[in-house]
C-alpha cells in the first residue's frame, strides 16, 4: 500500500536535513557563530574584508567607536 513508502521517505528526509543541521554546530565550533557569511559575491567579500580590517573579528558587531579618528 501507499504507507509502505513512509519509512523510506523518512530516511531520505533525515539524510537530506542532517548536513544543514550539522553545519550550525560545526560553524559554532570553528567560527564561533551559528552562521557563516556567504562569500560568493564580490560585494560580500569586500564587506568581510572591511569587517576584518576594522575589528579583527569579522563576526563581531562593532560601531563607529572601532574606527580610529586619525
Automatic annotation (TrEMBL):
This is NADH dehydrogenase [ubiquinone] 1 alpha subcomplex subunit 1. It comes from the Eukaryota. The keyword Membrane applies. Pfam families: MWFE. Keywords: Membrane, Transmembrane, Transmembrane helix. The chain crosses the membrane at residues 6-27.
Amino acid at each position: 500500500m501507499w504507507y509502505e513508502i513512509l519509512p523510506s521517505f523518512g530516511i531520505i528526509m533525515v539524510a537530506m536535513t542532517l548536513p544543514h543541521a550539522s553545519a550550525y554546530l560545526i560553524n559554532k565550533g570553528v567560527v564561533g557563530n551559528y552562521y557563516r557569511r556567504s562569500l560568493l559575491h564580490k560585494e560580500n567579500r569586500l564587506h568581510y574584508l572591511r569587517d576584518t580590517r576594522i575589528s579583527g573579528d569579522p563576526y563581531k558587531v562593532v560601531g563607529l567607536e572601532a574606527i580610529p579618528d586619525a
